[in-house]
Amino acid sequence: MKLIAFGLLLLGYIQYFATSDSEVIALYEIRTMLNDSRGVLNGWNNNQVSPCYFPSISCNQDQKVISITLISSGLSGFLSPSIAKLLYLQQLLLDGNSITGGLPQELGSLSSLTTLKLGGNSLSGSIPDSLGLLSKLQILNFSGNFLTGNIPASLSNISSLNDIDLSYNFLRGEIPKQLLQVSHYNYAGNHLNCGQNLTSCEGGQKNTGSNNKRHLLNIAIFSPIVAFCILFCWALIRRHRKGKQRLRESLKVRNEELFWGIEGANSDFKFFEVSQVVKATSNFSGQNKLGQGGFGPVYKGQFPDGMEIAVKRLASHSGQGLAEFKNEVQFIAKLQHRNLVRLLGCCSQGEEKMLVYEYLPNKSLDFFIFGITSNETRRASLNWIKRLAVIEGIAEGLLYLHKHSRLRIIHRDVKASNILLDSEMNPKISDFGLAKMFSSNDAEGNTRRVVGTYGYMAPEYASEGLFSTKSDVFSFGVLILEIITGKRNSGFHQYEDFFNLLGYAWQSWKEGRWLQLVDSSLVTDNCALGTMRCINIALLCVQENAADRPSMSDVVAMLSSESMTLAEPKHPAYFHTRMTKEEVSTIIESCSVNDVTISTPQGR
User: Fold this and answer.
1) Residue 107's domain spans which residues?
2) Which residues, including other chains, have CB under 8 Å from residue 114's CB and lie 6 or more apart?
3) 74-95: per-residue pLDDT in tens?
4) Is the same domain home to 37 and 79?
């Protein structure tokens, strides 16, 4: 009997430690999904024996987690589905933080939950149907988020619910009738129909007829007194309140500027709220999606005043991330030039990070010049006069970056997809996530992390990590050749026995066959002299030795003067890279076209 008793006692201890261990792991997994700016979760470690010693955690007498209280704790990030492993949880209080992402379906498995408060965060997506399984839930608060869709009818199944607040989201449709019968409810600030009789979206407990009469009498007596007091207090504090509000707004903007490193940015730059951008893009509707880049998706939007915008939203899996996000904000916010894309402002709240640009309706340059049969019309619409204007505009923009802006800036990712076109086909250089800034005395730099796009990278940068303004000059030369030929420097295209366009263009130039390089849609434009000069300039820009390449000042001078004598170019970079006929056939079968920015940790 003693042995049996000992076995039962041992089994109880094993079950206790197993349960405690699973809760410790669950809380640790929840912590890993959250960003803890204030260190309130520092005690949530996976090497603890019991979760009951974790800060902000309460347990019952059986040492099971029953409450998590982290109200206004500066948390951001996502709410982990591991919350469902806390089987005895009764209260989850996370209101007043900056948590983003969707509500986990797994919340519906917390059968002991009585209070669920996630108001005042930045949650998005729909309310899970699974919440209707929370049979003991009494208080539900999701107010002040970005939730969309309909209110699930399953919430009507929660007979214990007596307080529900879903106000100030983006919910639509009908409110289930049963949810208008709870003791306290608030659905204001949505796009909801509060019932067939258009009942108020805010409500409380119903009163008897006698109670209503007493309330009316009290209102009649005390309303004038209350009104007088309100007016008197308003007159006293109005000026003081305005002064404090102006001070708070000024300090907030100043703190934002210091954090992003944009003190001295142009006065039009703004810090947008997430709600403003969500509304402008119709909650990032798929119909408003313009494209996808390394940074993340880009959406079209429109502010209430009619201004059209383009919103670049940082993807959670982005290879660029916060460093490039801040890099772009710091550079473009301080730059103003007609040939640079205009950054209107940025938005950063928790994991949600967005850049807000002017909207340019004609997309990017590659959309027009790299034509296939289906878009020959687009290629033809970009005649030689317009292509020359694009070349000159890009050159002016690069010259501004290299010489005339406050500090010397090397873009490091000049390519066709990073040249945007406005309604009049004027070019705008975009995407400064990889740019580098130097003082006027610096000439070049070195990096162990090579970033850029294959086909546009200068040889000294790709092989040794050396970059300078001449690196941008090289990329610009490649871009000129692509604009003239309508073909990519590398990809599916095969140029006789040359691996890329550069060697083929130089060989054609040396043999006097340069006219063969010109896009067929330009042949009838009577532009032979102009295209010949631009090919000459392009070949000067892509010479293998960086010292032989012209500066952007020289390039602009050559483009603006038809009488200026041009030097004879030396062979370009990668000129000696050729292929045998067997290699040619292999490349044609296996090569794929892309224009993705890449990074190599070590200069080769």
Assistant:
1) 21-203
2) 90, 91, 136, 137, 138, 139, 160
3) 888 889 888 988 889 999 999 9
4) yes
